[in-house]
Amino acid sequence: MRYIILLVFFSNFVFSQSQSKVSYESYYKNKTDSIYKKLNFQIKKEIETTEERRISLYLEYAKVLKKRNESDSAIYYYIKAEKYFKKNKKRDSLVYIYSSMAEVFRFNDLPKQSKKFIDEAKKNIDINNISIDILAYYYNRRAAIESMYFDKNNALKYSKKVLDLEYKIKNKEIVVYSYNEIAALNEFVFKKHDLKSCLEEYKQAFKLALKYDVIDPQLDIIVNISRVSSQLNQLDTAIDYLLKGEEIANKVGSEYHIYIYNQLLKGFYYQKKQFKKAFDSYDKAMIFERKLIHENLLAKTLEIEKKYNLSIKENELKKKENEIILKNNELENNKKTTLLLSITFLITLLAVFTLVYYYRKINKYNKQLENLSNENEFLLSEANHRINNNLQLIIILISEQLKKMPLNEQVIINNILAKIESIATLHKHLYKSNDVSKIDLEKYFNEIVINLHEVFENNNIETNFLINKVSTTPDNAMYYGLLLTELCINSVKHAFTEDTKVKRIEFECFSNEENSIHFKYFDNGSNSKNQIIKPKLVDKICRNLNINYKIDTENGFLFTFTKNN
């Protein structure tokens, strides 16, 4: 049985070594789902009949369930395996079981339970009769738990114990993560005033990850390298590693890492004043964020649909069985008319009850689907609510920092702040709206104008905004809001001279009977008169909206377009 435990423990390692020429794409994208389906089928159908083989299936299944974030199910199968190993006094295997259970609880931020099971693992260690890799796995998980909740010195000690066994360990992922753990402890505790040496430690860990061809550590260590590099003002280094990480994440299909990398790239490009790249990274991050949320909701929906379809098939089988029974009864009772009538009556009655039964059952499943739909709408509303809260927090933090900056440095930050407020306003409308598929532009634009009121007032600008009741999709609404914000900011910054006596901005938005949106923006600033103007960000937003706009500078700055809604 000990060899079965080791086979389960090294399943990822053996795969990568035996098929080193297979692309990362086929390995990472298909591995978890295909293993999950295969193991789920084998366990439920009990294809493997021997007890040892069944226990090895439980361990493989629990490992996959943990990766799929199904922690309760993972613990259930670990407990089933634990009972077998206790009964057969397999202490070596129990160390692996308890360390794995402790990791599941650590992953779910439950320190007491995590400490309890890692201590149970320690009690079962027989130093003279234990697999080197299982011992290293225990040291590695112990270090992670100590670092997260308890004694940082112990965390460093156990990580170094793994390094002492480096050349004996077959699963090199443990070794790489231990190097990473030591670098993290030095960064935040022991060498926090010497970030340069910490950065070199992270780079060394990353080189080892490349050498041993372990993917997950590469993706995680890149985040640490970029963070420390940015703190040392080595933004080019941070960006290079993140781009390299994004390339790996794209190859292996890790959408979560692509999202994280682009969130970081957005900030670093902004610091380097590469605003187009910053906007592109932000746009990509938002796409993957929505995709991750959507996939989570879709998985729940598919699970309910699967149960519903299974029930329909069972009902069809029962109906066929009833039909066979009816035919047999008719054949057996053809000789006697009286019996035939009695049986016909009974069958009719049975059919009525059957129909009533299935009618109620179908109604029950329809209600479940309706509840699921309502739950999905609530989750989407909650997601928009949380996004709005996060954006409001960012606005507060930027505003506080803005107070500490010189006036000449506040202009760019104020521009960014206005755009963030525009997006935050959109998400506020989304989570407050009963219909998240449409946004009322009248309310949305009026709130943007309110946000910009202080800017207009400080610059003595008169405004006249005429907005009719118009509805559009959330994606289009976001771009319209950014467009209006950018045009207003450009007017405040560039349109007017000191000699301009009356500064005026006018805006109209309405729809006609053909359901087309008409957008008209005007300022009377003299700086733009008879000039050829094509604002870059405005042009970018219009291309995203797939619209043809017109700019007329004869009497100031006039921007117009018409778009089918």
TrEMBL record:
GO molecular function annotation: kinase activity
Residues in coiled coil: 310-382
Source taxon at top rank: Bacteria
EC numbers: 2.7.13.3
Keyword Lipoprotein set for record: no
Segments crossing the lipid bilayer: 339-359
Enzyme class: transferase
Protein keywords: ATP-binding, Coiled coil, Kinase, Membrane, Nucleotide-binding, Phosphoprotein, Transferase, Transmembrane, Transmembrane helix
Catalysed reaction equations from the record: ATP + protein L-histidine = ADP + protein N-phospho-L-histidine
Domain named Signal transduction histidine kinase subgroup 2 dimerisation and phosphoacceptor: residues: 382-454
SUPFAM superfamilies per the UniProt record, alphabetical: TPR-like (SSF48452)
PANTHER family listed in its UniProt record: ETHYLENE RESPONSE SENSOR PROTEIN, TWO-COMPONENT SYSTEM SENSOR PROTEIN
Protein name: histidine kinase
